[in-house]
Specification:
The complex is a heterotrimer of chains A (306), B (517) and C (428). Chain A has 306 residues and is an all-alpha fold. Chain A is built from 13 helices and no strands. Chain A starts with 5 loop residues before the first helix and ends in a 19-residue tail after the last helix. The chains are: A mainly alpha (306), B alpha/beta (517), C mainly alpha (428). Chains in contact: A-B, A-C, B-C.
Chain lengths: 306, 517, 428
Amino acid sequence: MSILSMSLVIAAIHLAVPIILPLLGGLISERSGVMNIALEGMMLVGGLTAVVFSFLTGDPWLGLAAAAVSGLISGAALALLTVTLRANQVVASTAINLVGAGLTAALVPIIWGTDGTTPSVAKIPPFVVPGLSELPVVGQLFRELTLVDYGTFVLVVGVWWVLFRTDTGLRLRACGESAESADSAGIDVVRTRFVAVALSGAFAALGGAYLSIVILDAFQAGMTQGRGYLALAALVFGKWRVWPGVAACVVFGLADALALRSQIVAPDIPHDLLLAMPYILALVALATFVGKGTAPAAVGKEFARA
Amino acid sequence: MSATAVRLAGITKRFGAVTANDGIDLAVRAGTVHGVLGENGAGKSTLMKILFGMIRPDEGTIEIDGKRVELRSSADALAQGIGMVQQHFSLVGPFTVVENLILGRDSRALWRRWLAPLPLSAARERARELSERFGFGLDADARCQDLSVGARQKVEIVKALWAGATILVLDEPTAALSPPEAEELYALLERLRADGTTVILISHKLPEILRLCDRVTVLRDGKVVGTREIDRADMDAISRAGVEADLVHLMIGRERPTVPERHPRELAPVLSVRGLTDGGRIGPVDLEVAGGEIVAVVGVEGNGQSALVDLLTGVVRAKAGSIVLDGAELAGRSTLARLRAGLAHIPEDRHAQAVAEEMSLIDNASIGFTTGAPFAPTRLWLSKAKRRRLAEAIIRDRSVRTPGPDAPMRSLSGGNQQKLVVGRELARAPRLMIAAQPTRGLDIASTTAVHEALMKLRAAGAGVLLLSLDLTEVFAISDRIVVIRQGVLVGEVATDRADPERLGAWMSGAAGGEEAA
Amino acid sequence: MSARVSSRRTRIDEELLRESLEINRRGHNGWRAEVLARAAAAGGTAAGRILSFVLTVLAAVIVSLPLVYLSGGDGALALDALIAGSWGSPIAAAETLVQTVPLLISGLAVALAFHAGLFNIGVEGQLVVGALSAGIVGATLPLPGPILIVVCVAAGAAGGALWALIPALLKAYRGVHEVVTTIMMNYIAFNLSTFLVSPSGPFVSSSQPSATEKIPIEARLPILVPGTRLHAGLILAIVLVIAVAWYLYRTPGGFSLRLTGANPRAARGAGISVPQTILRAMLLSGALAGLAGAVQVLGLFGRYFDAFSPGYGFDAIAVALLGALSPVGIAAAALFFGTLDSSAVYLQAQAGVSREMVGVVSGLVVGFVAAQPAILRLLRRLRARKARTRPNPSPDDLDRVLATVVPVPLADPDDAISHGLAETEATR
């Protein structure tokens, strides 16, 4: 089996999407001026919620919807701390990460009695595109991808459009560039940021749900393996723009896919070291980052009116 | 007869134990320019923020066009036709002019705002219309952070008018403008008044008030101390002087505190700068400061003052040129070495550059004193007891109001913080003190204290380089004035022979760079 | 105004110098008053810190109670098991101290970085590499016992510092935020560790999977109390508490580190090199983290085990914040989390509470510490509202206590917020 094949492309997509979704979330949050480093914890919560609801109802789509809602809630928790209470954004994010990781790991034995891994649940089925799935070579793509994959692409375009071409996006970006200016223009900065951060949680949670009920069919404690942080690296590397950031995620996903394949194709290279490739790539990507000039100017700073 | 556009009654606002506005009554006639005059700390900005909905008053009512209103946010104020042009924080730098104009002004349906593209061409058209009507001259697609200060202010005014403002509030609009730019603004305001717009002008500059206003309200210590009608058409030199004196008396309320007599001595040069440049923002610069002399560097904000200070203190490495302090070459040497050679620096932005708010007064007083003897003879020990005594001495010498040296810096008021910084810098026994905007934002008492300290330094034979935007201060304490424009020094004159109009011409580039004898 | 200058001295005004150096200037009575005043001030700070410590812990425990009930556990029983399992017997107490040691040292690591304005979330990876270094060196170098201990400890510190080097350089010289880089280094460390002691890895033991060879007994930290697992690492931990406190508050290096964290531009104006200080802070922090890992290997396990840390590096963040970044406070906070950790098995058996709960409590503690400034602001505003009639604006005792907020620094060397211009209207 050659290392380059449609299976590789599909694997790369499957491994890129769970980074793209939190990337979109991080983008929305940071463009509104709030650093969201809690994507990892929010992903874990989303991943577990999806499995729980899929388990309870037998319908993976309900699980997905529930995951999005859980993301809104965890996003709102971060928003409460950082926007309403004006706490330090990094510390608050760390709190959510710790609680998310601990809570999801603790709930698995509580709910199922098993340790660390839940039993299998119904997962999202692939969506066979009529017509396109008959094509040679490419047809495999249109047989194995799910609606969630297509939906992610739609979300990417949607986020780009709303953020950079509409009035809502203009207002949101104004909050991220200069909160005082946005305020004097009559924009409710607190509400805008709160909504942005809550939404970012929903995106991250969907990323986590993707891992648990699209790729896999169960939840494992810690299954996100740092993807929430890889998303942040992609965000920085893409200079807070949508398409370069997504490109970075695709590169990470590809590296991950290649590393998994390599175990079969090139067994001499230590497998564990190859698994570290995405993280090493992320470091390299960050090292090429030149100065803070491209970040939204107000990101990380709290906003308060007299 | 003109109606009352704005009526404030009994407005009171307290911040903790400080009463910024105390029972203020104000009535502005429609279609006039109404001035609000007062010194720093008199309460003008707080009052205007209340009018613009950014702050809620503790007591009092606001009436617009005879109707009582509650202003809970700037959106409410805008809805009532009030537009505010502030000194800072109003435009989003990376956005273009058009984007800034339409920001927050989209009144389409919610779903449209989320999905439909921005109505940029319609906006550009409207901007052009307004531009022509009042003679603005704006480039709709320029990025705001690339515009000059004067241009940005015009955008702010257009923005207020765009929102349908019929009442325009301007807060110290000429603070950062050169004289020609200020002239343009005055002409603009007159055109706006002719068009029926009501203008409220906040200022501490008398000439401006007398030139533009129909009526002026004077604030002092948070209260209204008087309101005067100004008949601009019918004012000769004598009555003008009378009106001025009247207003000054209202504003100050007491005798101006006397500044001690100056006895400037010209000794050997303390600082000799030749051909100093950083290859970009400033230079080449030639400058000399003698012992026993205060040299003021004046210029419009953003013309290289900070760059000059950075080069002198060593924070930025010079591309070329020499800096000689008391005969010793400083260029190429570290900041620490320069401090040791006798340089001291009061930074222009205390919060960002001079103090650590979370640390104690002891620690703040020790900044720059922690390398080597007397406090740290070895790397292993930094004496806290000795630093405590230093802090106590500085606190005592400069009358800093604080419960004790262990208190955190942020428990001090701005004026007291600055007194500590001045005391700390003086403790270096400097040969050259660089004082950048040392009295910005301070009350009268603290300002006098800082001036006295600088003059005492001068009397002891050291040199002072004063960078200031306040010509009053410059005329009060400096011996020689140097004008900076776009990174080079364009004019120099002895203070007692200086003329504000000539300085203004140098600052704005209207005259060439000749040196006065 | 004259001054004394020489190459090893700071330039300072003569008169002020004399005043600073004078001892016992005020005489007997004045000396007593001064000591009392200073004790009162210090006491106020300590009281404030203890209060916020207790309240934060209580808040975190109360919020996590629902989960205890959810897991079928019993709240009262849990509390009982908590105390019994951690301090109920000499052996339990020894175990608690054993669990406290790595938390203490890694808490110091996090706090040191915080003081310099840096968020070192990479402590977990750094302690793994430190432990690896100690374990590998101990198992492979044929040196006599006492020398080997020292070399292993040094290797541990060096390993941790090395692991902090890349994020340190990226932050100091490229301005890359250290949070993401240190987290990436964590994951690389975990993978590296798995590889090095995997079945085909270079350092795996022949007798124990996923571990290095045993370190000879002479090269391990001695046991302090026979019959328990309490090792000399505790002494090292206490020494480190004193050393870090000394460094931060009584050396010029520590001062420049704290100043850089509080206001990097003010530090630059005082001649301090901000990039060098950042580097120094991260390397020291990494070294401490490495020591935390090395101590576990040399004192507790006797060899390196893959995934030996249940997340000490992350709990250390909570320890540092709960301890208000002060070495003594961190010792207390480490004891608290050590208590939780050592009673974990007991808690599981008696009250059905899993070890993961410690992670949740950790997170809640961090969350409450993050919310602390907001709560204090609220309290201040309520007090101000009640005391509106009082004309005296100077801060009183409660204000001073309230002012002892955890100084988690926000300073970022590239940040250039300027507040000075907005001072015109007094707010104090």
